[in-house]
Amino acid sequence: MASTSATDIPAEVQAVNVPDGTTDFIPLRGKKYDLKKPHITELPITWGNWYKHVNWLNTTFIIFVPLAGLISAYWIPAQTKTILFSIAYYYFAGLGITAGYHRLWAHTSYKATLPLKIWLAAGGAAAVEGSARWWSRDHRAHHRYTDTDKDPYSVRKGLLYSHIGWMVMKQNPKRIGRTDITDLNEDPVVVWQHKHYIKCVIVMALIVPTLICGLGWGDYAGGFIYGGILRIFFIQQATFCVNSLAHWLGDQPFDDRNSPRDHVITALVTLGEGYHNFHHEFPSDFRNAIEWWQYDPTKWCIWVWKQLGLAYDLKKFPHNEIEKGRLQQQQKKLDQKRATLDWGIPLENLPVVSWDDFVQESKNGKAWIAVAGVIHDVGKFIQDHPGGKALINSAIGKDATAIFNGGVYNHSNAAHNLLSTMRVGVIRGGCEVEIWKRAQAENKDIATVTDSSGKKIVRAGLQPTRVTPPVTTADAA
Ligand SMILES: [Zn+2]
Ligand SMILES: [Zn+2]
Questions:
Q1: Model confidence at 446: pLDDT above 70
Q2: What stretches pass through the bilayer (predicted)?
Q3: Predicted confidence (pLDDT) per residue in 4-25, tens digit
Q4: 306, burial (CB in 10 Å: exposed 0-12, middle 13-18, buried 19+)
Q5: Closest ligand, as measured to the CA of 136
Q6: How far is the CA of 362 from the centre of ligand 2 (A)?
Q7: How far, in Å, from the CA of 171 to the mean position of ligand 2?
Q8: Which of residues 240, 256, 289 is at a domain's end?
């Protein structure tokens, strides 16, 4: 960890160092919590106190104001120019969150020059989702404590909670996981935006769109309602989907132990933040989508800014590491599938039968056939044998290793697999029946390959009943 001398950090953002290397988060605005008093969230919600559980400031901004905007829109006609501007401003604000708050400040997946930082901080303020400092602190906790109680927007508490509930309801500041934000406290743009957050919001989210539409084409009211309030509503709902939809809908190509998922719909809604399973595995990668054809406009913008000299040090995880993660998850899925299939009783769990008993039981009516030292009960299969009843009947009570492995017909891998499900015993010692043991001894690796649950993996062509006949050459004679 880079050590920073206390003098580098503005005095008001210096916080107590804690033994895990993080620093306590200290609010720069608003009241400081008295950590000794019980927080309202520690009390159950009742008819008498429910309103104390609601975060009214957030509720006003993300529910009441948009509702008022929707109603007002009835009286204010939507002009084409205003709508086009609102869409452009939507992208400006959205990128402030995705490229600014998320990939630049929360994850430091690239570095930005001062003009770009100011641009992103302004865009982030226009989205009205809290300051970059506050947002990044929570987001780092979300990554560090994903799906646990310390995750500020854990999807385990329900899809609605992860989407909006965590903002509408008060959160216990003692509960949210601690994260290190010393780097953000050293970033003057972040600290300034945090301290002047309310002013930034009023200017960037409402005044600027109102003035642009008003001075540009005389639509002050439309600029305020469409470019301001309704645009804020849409950008909030879209970016909230990163916390809800991205933890609920889609595939898990890199790790399925936690909730993050990849889905193109989430990507379309969130300016490319939808490849969230990848993102949680490789959070400091400036990309969310790693394939060129996947939708990640945030990545494209960062790349363009790099070409313009505004962004640098774009971080990428090595392809080798990404593919390793993907392969391991594929392997895990294969193992899970393997576990659902019938591979026959493992050889070590089969009873050991002497050759004489094997012959005797076969004479007594059991349809037993020995192949490579393993006894198989083919009784139920005789009728279905593709090679006919006579051939299989002729092998009952005998060692059919050579016949099965090419003497009469070199059986397919599928036939060896099917045969393994008919195992009933192993022959003790003697003659040709030892062959599989020898074969296994010669292929020690094959005999010991197990999957992640400890079950043996039987690869194609490597069933123990498969025996290659010895190659006879002129020299050997
Ligand atoms: Zn997440
Ligand atoms: Zn993230």
A1: no
A2: 56-76, 83-104, 116-135, 197-218
A3: 444 455 555 555 666 666 665 6
A4: middle
A5: 2
A6: 66
A7: 20
A8: 240
